[in-house]
UniProtKB/TrEMBL annotation:
It comes from Ensete ventricosum. Residues 32-60 are annotated as: Disordered. This is Uncharacterized protein. Residues 32-43 have a biased composition (Basic and acidic residues). It comes from the Eukaryota.
Amino acid sequence: MSRNNTLNFQRYASPQLSRLPVDDFAGEERCFEQGRTSKRDPRGSAPRTTTVNSKQAREQREIEKNLVRVRDEWMKVKEEMGYVKQRGELLSETLMATDRMVGVMLVELERAEENVRGLMAQNDRLLEGNAVVNALDYSVGK
C-alpha cells in the first residue's frame, strides 16, 4: 500500500516507468494488466476503474459481437443450403424414378391398347359372322 491507502503497482510496472516516482502520476497509479487507471474519487469514495481506450474496446467488442452474429447466420445459411441441396437431390431422384415408372406405364398402356383393338377386331368379325348366319337363317326361314 502507498500513502493515500491505494495499491502500489509501481514494482510491477515496465522498466521505463519504474524510474518515475509515484508523484509523477499526479495521484494516479497505473495498472498495466488491461490498460486501466485506478483513480480516487475527489469526494473520497471508493476507487473507480476507467478504461484508457474504452471507446476502442467497446468498438472492438461490438465488432466481435457482430462477427459472431454474422458467422452464426452464415452457418445457418450454409446448413440450410446443404438441406436444400439434399432435398433437391432427393427430388431429382424422385423425378427420375417417376419418369421411369411413367415410361413403363406407357409401354403397358400401348400393349393394353393393342389387346383391346385385337379384341374389338375379333368381336367385329364375330358380329359380322353372326350377321351373315342370321341373314342366312332369315332368308332360309321365309
